[in-house]
Task: inverse folding
């Protein structure tokens, strides 16, 4: 059987500048991979290389044996790769409703509105008028309801209140139990530890820490992130 | 000064040789191109520096040409004619200044719309010129007047044009050395920052537009004498477009670029238009290529070639800084919010915020995302207008005033994302900041003003750990995020404000740099004994610097107290889970 | 008001609305200040000559117009406009150059002089006791039908939101599965084709010459400014005000006054209400 997601020697960055070096890892469907590291170590770069916003300098990303490396972002979305960016994560000029209905979706919205009632209240308001935390939640929900099988999340918890972060954790686990593979780039250790099956620690663009929820102690993670 | 006198005297020499080498007829033709060149230089000045692009410069050219023609028709004594010309130029400049200042007042982004307005004005002028036959002569034009001082357009009048052209170039070269030039470029680079530094940017744009209109009008006046006839084509769309192309292809960033463009294109076009049917096509191609690939035009290409053959001897030696005149220091004052409400569309951002700060000390604002922290600063500086309520600083009501007025009331602000002049060097950034709140109109036209350095900036620079001193000649674009934070901080304290607003000054800083920043903030507060307001997420920083902490939640004040009371306040704990880095 | 004036008003408004619709997409949505928009009207007006010089049946004028205008627009988008998204001033300058290129190109092919074509539908229709050219009535009806269909389609389709999303945040638009390169070329070509078809429809009623585009460009720009960008209602109001002012004042005073008042009106709107009459929705 083919591996769900394989990343092999992935190297890339912005323009000529290389930010991420030789990342190799894999993920099974239904699993959640937590990627941790401080600001500027390459987490977002890894996310964008997988999602297609950046093109790899070398290396390969394969989803169910099919190489994604040459595909532009919209084509990766068509084969089931979802993405929530860290910044500019919503369409400011569109209403909350239009933000959620722009792509091809099939998941019902109501359960998410129950968890995040603020979105339902502001359904016909432009997303650009919402606060930073609210926009994060909107972008998060958008990435959850899409018809995708690999979801790349880049710092969903940044600026979000603790209560909503735990709702997010619930959604992520639910989506994984439906069979989606999830890559979660985060600095929030609480969220990371609550959902991740395995961990990847990045520093200066290289993998410096690897392990599963069983093999890594919480102190290891905390120490890594405050290095 | 050599960098000014050398090109100007070369220009003068070359232009004086033309009648000797090529004869009077060529000189006559070159004279016309030089006239267009003067108008194009004015366009290059406003477009290249401030980024404002007027599309109807022929309006001023044409109106001045018609007025010159009517004056010359009256055949008055030369002195009187010149006096009237001077008055006309002043009137046109004044009109342009009023027009642009009014249009740009209260906004910082109506660029394209301003361009369309100038275009529409030029089209109105063309229409009137064509139809008001009794005044302008209609499509046959206005003619039957002698040239200025009865000079021969094919002979001695050429030297008048050369004199004007060289004079204008000299003036432009000198302007490039003056502080006004820094301000004009700063408008294009970062208009919001310039407003926070206390400069009314709409006036700067108005002045630049007036200057460009003045040059266009001067050219129009010269044109009337040169051609002996003025027709509706001297105003309106086609000539405006022509001037734009001359400026773009010649190079809008260089003083001589538009002049070069006018002469080269004018001459080539006269030579080739009849023999080469694809000439206009070729010009269009060249123009598109310049827009896409070489925004600096011919002048930039020439400069690059010259630089290859003559490597510049000294890479811009740093002139020593001089202390800026001290500012009348404003007395400490209390900041007070009176039931402030702010709505944007249907969204309530601030919901009846009231508090009063001490006149001196550090106040930190904390609260979850979307609580309205940055909006509070925006209302203080006037970036956002209140829906109701008012804000007072000392005795003055400061809410809902234009942003540029904040600094002169002693309020300076550092933005959340470091906002500096990215296309300038570090020392140029510091110079502009040093002008803030001090510079008079006369200072702007003194060479020495560009070397000003405010004492507050010197204090920051002289701190042994601040990394800016060895970066003075670096372009800001090469600076890291952390260095930009320190640069913007230095620029913000330059005017020694009575109220210093800092929006997340430690964002993106390493732990060492964070410690340095907090030290600078405390130092400023202690020596100046003024009010400092800081937005900060990191509770350890809040603890280290704050005299009082303002907690915002959902656009309301949840608590306003000292740090330890805030820390134990159960309401605050319930809504705000602030962690440490 | 006489019946002729009302019919003239309908004729002016409907044809201007079609030209302005194209510009509303290119300028209002894609944020490209296309100074060559009028040249696509001009190109469309030359379609009958292209058709006859190729020896094709007059029935093929519409496809010939669409193919000519569409392919030039596509070429232009792929080679030049592509680099100009988000650079409004540069788009203005580059398309200005393209406009000159197109005018000169047409002049080389067809000469500088005026041309005219006869309408495919001749004769007059009697409406309320007034005889009015049948061709104009047909064109007004076609445009009205077209706009009704467009209005209905825009209410159901996601395309307007997709374009808005793409312009506001291209990276995220790709991430939610929008092929931005194809969408932007498609929108640009569609906008230019609106202008081309308008030119073809106008051809039998005007003098055709290489410089004719400028007037249409200016008036549709001003219609968008007056009406406000981003909605069909605004487009209708803007074209109504601009074409209405020009037609009515042209009839009761003179063409010059009509033209001058349109310019003055536009200046006032640009200055005092730059987002148009429908700006309150922001």
Result:
């Amino acid at each position: 059987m083919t591996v769900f997601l394989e990343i092999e020697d992935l190297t890339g960055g912005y323009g000529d500048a290389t930010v991420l070096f030789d990342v190799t890892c894999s993920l099974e469907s239904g699993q959640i991979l937590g990627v941790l590291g401080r600001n500027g170590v390459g987490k977002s770069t890894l996310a964008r290389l997988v999602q297609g916003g950046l093109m790899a300098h070398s290396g390969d990303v394969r989803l169910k044996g099919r190489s994604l490396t040459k595909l532009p972002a919209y084509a990766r979305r068509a084969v089931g790769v979802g993405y929530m960016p860290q910044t500019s994560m919503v369409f400011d000029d569109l209403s909350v409703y239009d933000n959620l209905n722009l792509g091809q979706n099939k998941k019902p919205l109501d359960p998410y509105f129950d968890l995040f009632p603020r979105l339902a209240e502001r359904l016909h308001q432009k997303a650009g008028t919402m606060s930073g935390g609210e926009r994060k939640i909107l972008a998060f929900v958008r990435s959850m309801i899409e018809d995708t099988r690999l979801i790349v999340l880049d710092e969903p918890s940044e600026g979000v209140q603790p209560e909503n972060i735990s709702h997010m954790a619930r959604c992520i686990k639910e989506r994984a139990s439906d069979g989606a593979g999830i890559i979660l780039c985060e600095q929030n250790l609480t969220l990371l530890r609550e959902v991740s099956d395995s961990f990847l620690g990045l520093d200066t663009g290289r993998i410096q820490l690897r392990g599963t929820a069983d093999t890594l102690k919480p102190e290891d993670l905390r120490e890594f992130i405050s290095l | 000064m050599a960098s000014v006198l050398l090109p100007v005297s070369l220009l003068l020499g070359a232009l004086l040789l033309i009648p000797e080498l090529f004869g009077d007829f060529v000189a006559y033709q070159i004279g016309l191109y030089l006239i267009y060149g003067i108008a194009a230089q004015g366009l290059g000045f406003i477009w290249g520096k401030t980024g404002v692009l007027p599309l109807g410069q022929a309006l001023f050219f044409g109106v001045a040409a018609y007025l010159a023609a009517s004056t010359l028709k009256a055949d008055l004594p030369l002195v009187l004619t010149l006096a009237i010309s001077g008055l006309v130029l002043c009137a046109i400049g004044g009109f342009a200044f009023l027009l642009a200042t009014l249009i740009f007042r209260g906004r910082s982004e109506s660029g394209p719309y301003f361009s369309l307005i100038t275009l529409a004005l030029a089209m109105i002028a063309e229409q009137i010129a064509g139809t008001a036959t009794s005044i302008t002569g209609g499509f046959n034009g206005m003619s039957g007047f002698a040239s200025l001082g009865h000079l021969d357009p094919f002979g001695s009048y050429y030297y008048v044009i050369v004199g004007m052209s060289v004079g204008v170039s000299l003036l432009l070269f000198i302007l490039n050395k003056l502080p006004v030039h820094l301000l004009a470029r700063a408008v294009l680079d970062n208009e919001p920052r310039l407003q926070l530094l206390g400069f009314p940017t709409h006036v700067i744009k108005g002045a630049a537009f007036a200057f460009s209109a003045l040059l266009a009008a001067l050219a129009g006046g010269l044109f009337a004498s040169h051609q002996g006839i003025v027709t509706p084509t001297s105003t309106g769309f086609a000539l405006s477009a022509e001037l734009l192309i001359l400026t773009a292809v010649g190079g809008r960033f260089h003083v001589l670029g538009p002049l070069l463009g006018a002469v080269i294109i004018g001459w080539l076009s006269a030579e080739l238009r009849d023999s080469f049917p694809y000439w206009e096509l070729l010009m269009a191609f060249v123009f598109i290529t310049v827009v896409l690939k070489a925004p600096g035009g011919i002048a930039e290409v020439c400069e690059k070639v010259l630089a290859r053959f003559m490597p510049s001897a000294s890479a811009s030696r740093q002139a020593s800084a001089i202390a800026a005149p001290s500012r009348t220091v404003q007395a400490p004052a209390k900041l007070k919010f009176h039931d402030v409400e702010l709505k944007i569309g249907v969204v309530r951002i601030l919901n009846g915020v009231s508090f009063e700060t001490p006149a001196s000390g550090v106040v930190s604002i904390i609260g979850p995302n979307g609580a309205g922290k940055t909006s509070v600063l925006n209302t203080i500086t006037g970036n956002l207008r209140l829906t109701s309520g008012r804000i007072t600083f000392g005795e003055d009501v400061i809410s809902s005033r234009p942003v540029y007025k904040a600094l002169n009331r002693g309020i300076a602000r550092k933005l959340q994302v470091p906002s500096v002049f990215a296309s300038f060097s570090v020392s140029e950034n510091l110079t502009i900041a040093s002008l803030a709140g001090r510079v008079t109109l006369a200072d702007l036209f003194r060479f020495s003003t560009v070397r000003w350095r405010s004492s507050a900036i010197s204090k920051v620079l002289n701190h042994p750990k601040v990394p800016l001193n060895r970066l003075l000649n670096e372009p800001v674009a090469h600076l890291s995020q952390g260095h930009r934070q320190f640069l913007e901080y230095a620029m913000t304290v330059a005017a020694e404000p009575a109220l210093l607003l800092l929006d997340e000054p430690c964002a993106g800083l390493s732990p060492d740099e964070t410690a340095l920043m907090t030290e600078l903030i405390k130092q400023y507060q202690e020596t100046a004994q003024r009010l400092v307001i800081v937005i900060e997420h990191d509770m350890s920083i809040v603890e280290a610097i704050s005299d009082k902490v303002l907690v915002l939640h959902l656009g309301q004040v949840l608590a306003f107290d000292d740090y330890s009371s805030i820390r134990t306040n159960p309401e605050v704990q319930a809504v705000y889970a602030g962690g440490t880095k | 008001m006489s019946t002729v004036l009302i019919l003239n008003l309908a004729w002016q408004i409907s044809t201007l609305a079609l030209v302005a619709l194209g510009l509303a997409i290119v300028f209002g949505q894609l944020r490209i200040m296309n100074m060559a928009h009028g040249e696509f009207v001009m190109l469309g007006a030359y379609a009958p000559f292209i058709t006859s010089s190729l020896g094709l049946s007059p029935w093929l004028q519409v496809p010939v117009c669409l193919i000519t205008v569409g392919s030039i627009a596509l070429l232009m988008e792929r080679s030049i406009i592509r680099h100009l998204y988000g650079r409004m001033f540069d788009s203005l300058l580059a398309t200005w150059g393209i406009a000159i290129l197109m005018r000169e190109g047409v002049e080389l092919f067809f000469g500088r002089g005026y041309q005219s074509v006869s309408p495919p539908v001749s004769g007059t229709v009697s409406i309320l006791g007034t005889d009015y050219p049948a061709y104009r009535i047909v064109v007004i009806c076609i445009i009205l039908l077209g706009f009704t269909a467009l209005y209905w389609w825009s209410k159901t389709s996601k395309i307007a939101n997709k374009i808005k999303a793409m312009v506001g945040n291209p990276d995220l638009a790709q991430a939610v599965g929008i092929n931005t390169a194809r969408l932007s070329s498609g929108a640009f070509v569609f906008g230019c084709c609106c202008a081309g078809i308008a030119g073809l429809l106008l051809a039998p009623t005007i003098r055709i010459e290489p410089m004719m585009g400028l007037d249409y460009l200016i008036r549709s720009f001003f219609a968008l400014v007056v009406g406000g960008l981003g909605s069909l209602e605004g487009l209708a109001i803007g074209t109504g005000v601009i074409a209405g002012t020009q037609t009515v004042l042209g009839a009761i005073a003179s063409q010059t006054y009509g033209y001058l008042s349109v310019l003055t009106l536009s200046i006032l709107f640009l200055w005092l209400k730059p987002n148009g009459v429908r700006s309150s929705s922001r």
The longest helix of chain C spans residues 3-29. The interface with chain B takes residues 33, 80, 83, 88-90, 92-94, 96-98, 100-101, 104-105, 108, 214, 218, 221-222, 225, 256, 259-260, 263-264, 266-267, 270-271, 274, 282 of chain C (CB under 8 Å).
